[in-house]
Amino acid sequence: MIAKRLLPALVATLACGLAHAAAPAKAPVFVGTDAPMASNAIYFVLTDRFVDGDTANDHRDQGGAHPTWDIPVPGAPKGESANIGYLGGDFRGVLDNAGYIKGMGFGAVWITPIVDNPDEAFTGGDPVSWGSKFTDRGKTGYHGYWGVNFYKVDEHLPSKDLDYRQFTAGMHEAGLKVVQDIVLNHGSPAFTMPVKQPQFGQIFDRDGKLVADEQNLPPYQLDPVRNPLHRFYHAYDDLVQLSNNDDQNPAVLDYFVGAYLQWIDQGSDAFRIDTISHMSTTFWKQFSARIRAKHPGFFMYGEAFDYSPDNIGKFTWPQNGGISVLDFPLRGRLGEVFEHPHSDYAQILDRLYLTNGPYQNPYELVTFYDNHDMARLNASDDGFIDANNFLFTARGIPAIYYGSEIGFERGKAEHEGNRNYFGQQRIDNAPKSPIYQHLKRIAMLRAKMPALQRGLMLPIRFAGQQASFYRVYQQGKVHQIALVLLNKGDQPADFKVGQWLQSGTWQPLLGDGPPVAIGDGGMLDATVGPHDVQVYLLDARVRRADLLAELTRLQEERGHPAR
Length: 563
Hints:
Keywords: Hydrolase, Metal-binding, Signal. This protein has helices spanning 2-22, 91-95, 98-103, 164-173, 250-265, 281-294, 309-313, 328-338, 346-349, 381-391, 424-429, 434-448, 450-454, 545-556; strands at residues 42-45, 108-111, 115-116, 149-153, 177-182, 202-204, 210-213, 270-273, 299-302, 324-325, 366-367, 397-401, 456-463, 466-475, 478-487, 493-497, 504-508, 516-518, 524-528, 532-538. It is built from 14 helices and 20 strands. By secondary structure, the protein is α/β, with parallel strands linked by helices. The N and C termini lie far apart (60 Å). The strands form five sheets. An eight-stranded parallel β-sheet has the order 10-9-8-5-2-1-12-11. A six-stranded antiparallel β-sheet has the order 13-14-15-20-17-18. Strands 3-4 form a two-stranded antiparallel ribbon.
């Protein structure tokens, strides 16, 4: 009797077990990053130097005895120029060219700081001359990094019916996110003026009230204990004559949290943080926590101008704020490889840090080869093409400095033409450039492919003029195995790839080549033209055992081993 009563339960249990045994195993997840910003390559615009879309906001008569409009750098060689005055670029100039930027394959635009800057040229410091560094005498705040009121838009940027909120709305309508460059560690130049100038060394609140004033005193003469206007600042200098905001003062944190929450509310999608290494990780932990309390997951990346991964990696760790960074260590190697035609791709490999590296997540780093603070990439057209082919297929979020799509002012540093005016004519002519044509080709491909945006990166071979690697994204209903083949040589290159190569039909995504059917243990043979790239796609889940093992290791060891 007992056996008869137990039999139905036993049958039900066995049936349930067989059902579970028959169910397919859940596919593993292979993802470099899920950060939404990773989908978007970034185009970096120094706003004043892009396009003057509205001459009504140029303020060409501003500054009185210290005018701010169009100030050529003295000592320029014949046929060359640089400028330290305003040249008219504005929100209208960027928005009018949103289609140009989106059409190249970018999903975000990083603009320089929008906050109010002084209304005169600076009279202190050392005079600017051709090729000089860390010199500011005679310079204006055209670049936006000399903030005096962080709650107010600088008057050179908006137009009638185009304030910041309307600008970001227009960019969003065009399919572009807006990355706002922000500064917290310093304001404007604050001392060494022969005669104190208005606004320099001062900070005002949202109501226009003066909250800080260095009063043209050298930092060691500040008295933050007794003078309330000095309490915003450290009583020691940091960068040239710039004010040095006190990151241990809660009022400083409150001021900037309030200011930058305001700009998020007006449409900023992400922040690039200037000079992040000049303030403590304790400060950044507090700042990021308060920003993300209102805007969970808000993406931020900092500039620590430092080629040591040990020094910059700490900012990415959760206990220090979880802020990504510009990838300077990789940038150093990109310059070495793509500025020199006979360089070795192997130089790049040890700066990828794909497992147990210094970063919380290497796939969220913003990758680049030049910007406004260093000499532009000094490469041939082919060198730019090769650099872009790598940047838009490798791990990270690529950022391209305005003009690099045509090799604008290549090799030039700040006071040698790096920040020169671009203008509408160059934009209209850009599609004729081979750099532009190849950039658009690879950037548009990245914009369509989750594997290139956020997939794990598995190197196969980096040697001489060739590099090959997989990018693999597997999550939910999306499964892409991409094989990237890069040739930076002057001759066609033959690739034979068998390592970790999964069987199936691989589709070439560039050019008009036929699909390639690969059997178990097969080899993919391909020829890639000089200074070119090919990407093959297998739209399938990962099945091959050794590929599964390698990707599982990459997934598990993606970040810093102690984090």
